[in-house]
Specification:
There is one protein chain. By secondary structure, this protein is an alpha+beta fold. Helix content is 35%, strand content 10%. It has five helices and three strands. The radius of gyration is 16 Å and the shape is globular.
Length: 126
């Protein structure tokens, strides 16, 4: 499960933070993102969830700070590849099939901006 549009929103939000505050705790940045809109708060459990989460989060997109967002389930066949931005908001979906699923993530950062943002986003909290 991915949140389509999330890299653009995260980059946009980070650009709004003064440079002196960008090196703060990743937990603070994540919490800011989760609480930046009522839709995101409901998605992440910081506000009451709608009765039909699929309809609310997957069937239609919403606009947060001018960026369209929607939860998308990634599906594919063995051998398929999915390319995502390094700061794509994602989570594990339950395996409803009879076979185990395996996924390998290979990070390939192609731009200086991507490397810097990923390093800040994935840095362990101190």
């Amino acid at each position: 499960m991915i949140l389509s549009g999330s890299p653009r929103l995260l980059i946009q939000q980070e650009r709004q933070i003064p440079a002196s505050q960008r090196r703060g705790s990743i937990a603070v940045l994540r919490e800011r993102f989760r609480r930046s809109d009522p839709w995101l708060m409901a998605l992440t459990g910081h506000a009451p969830s709608p009765a039909d989460r699929i309809a609310a989060f997957m069937d239609a997109e919403t606009i947060v700070e001018g960026i369209p967002l929607r939860v998308v389930e990634l599906t594919g066949e063995p051998g398929d590849m999915v390319f995502c931005h390094p700061v794509m908001v994602h989570c594990v979906a339950p395996n409803r099939g009879a076979r185990p699923r395996f996924m390998r993530i290979k990070t390939q950062l192609l731009t200086r901006e991507g490397r810097e943002l990923s390093s800040r986003w994935h840095r362990p909290d101190s």
